[in-house]
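Input sequence (214 aa), recorded before submission:
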Amino acid sequence: MALKLKHLLRASWRKLRSDKRGLALTEFAVVAPVFISLGMFGFEIAYMAITKMRVSQIALSVADNASRLGQTDNGAFVTTIREDQVSSVLNGSLIEGRSIDMNENGRIILSSLEVDPRNDNQFIHWQRCIGTKEVDSAYGGEGEELEGMGTPQITAPPEEAVMFVEVVYTYSPVFSGAFVGDVNFRDEAAFIIRDDRNLEPGLTPGSTGVQNQC
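Predicted structure, token format:
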């Protein structure tokens, strides 16, 4: 009986060893999780890089647009910048960043870096913000005296202003935190104003008063 069982087991093993049915399916079941994980990781990294590029573009766009404020004014006097003009630039940045939920996940801080005529020190004359993320400027608030802003350090020439933008954004993973956790992006951009401005009053009130106070 034992010998018969032994021969039966050997025959079954030889038959099983020569049976190739389902081999491809078995191999796929083994390697599929690895390739799927690699694909998801690659997509996550690519999308994170695209998001970082968009954050950089928003910073440049806000600084550039803010530096152009007043260019279309054709009055005989040197222009002053209004609150509603700055507000339109900041609101436009949220439209530009709608695909990455900039309003919910980010903060845009626009500062006017100038020379204080009272003591010739660099200072932030005015500062406006937008976005629900709670974060302050890395350089201080409105009225802050400082040596300059940015890396490398940027300073404003006398009787000129530099529109300095800080964008802080929290990247939320597409799939989960298994590949990357929440990552904070920070980008800065600066443009000197394009035309003469009357800098003394700072921002003059618009139709709805002070907007986007930090």
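Checked by second reader. The first helix runs from residue 2 to 18.
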